[in-house]
Amino acid sequence: MQELLQTLRAHNFEIHAFTNYPYGKRKPDPEFYLKVVEHLGVESCDCLFIDDRPSNVKCAVEIGMRGLCFENADSFLKDFSNLGINQNLQLTQED
Q1: Is 50 exposed, middle or buried (CB count within 10 Å of its CB: 0-12, 13-18, 19+)?
Q2: Domain assignments of the chain as residue spans, ordered by start
Q3: CA distance 66 to 50
Q4: Which Pfam family, any one of them, does this sequence belong to (predicted)?
Q5: How many CB atoms lie within 10 A of CB 44?
Q6: Looking at the chain, which terminus has fewer C-beta neighbours within 10 angstroms, N or C?
Q7: Angstrom distance (rounded) from CA 11 to CA 60
């Protein structure tokens, strides 16, 4: 996961991680995602939410975010490309 974050940052993607305690809501409560969008000062459609739990991704998509469920590096790159985001990302898998 750290390699993924480093690769995305190297391609000028902003990375934000949020916890529930400042918002009083938890994933997958839609209010959690709306508070994050408000905090960032962007529209939900401008956000890409990545999580390893399908229920969390589903809720993010329902409030207007794009969402990816992280399973492994190969599927992530394919899903990322399917969203029309192709930055020639290359990730190596640990053996």
Answers
A1: buried
A2: 2-82
A3: 9
A4: Hydrolase
A5: 19
A6: C
A7: 23
